[in-house]
Write a structure and sequence with these properties.
The protein is an alpha+beta fold. The chain contains one helix and four strands; from the N terminus they run E-E-E-H-E. The chain has one domain. It holds the Pfam family DUF2188.
Length: about 70
């Protein structure tokens, strides 16, 4: 994972977390994916990082630059 990326990922204990690449701990935990996305967008904009929103199974979406 690129250090200049934030991820919205499912949390093993339930809910969703926002986590910066390379970090073991989440920045913040949320009950819903929608709330995690909103916070992730705000943080990503402020820190000028890319936001990657993962699926419920934890996998990232397919890259849009794949041919």
């Amino acid at each position: 994972m690129n250090r200049s990326t934030h991820h919205v990922v499912p949390n093993a204990k339930g809910g969703w977390s926002v986590q910066r690449s390379g970090s073991e701990r989440a920045s913040r935990h949320f009950a819903t994916k929608k709330a995690a996305e909103a916070y992730g967008r705000k943080v990503s904009f402020n820190q000028k990082t890319t936001l990657v929103i993962h699926r419920e199974d934890g996998t990232p979406p397919p890259s849009s630059d794949q041919g």
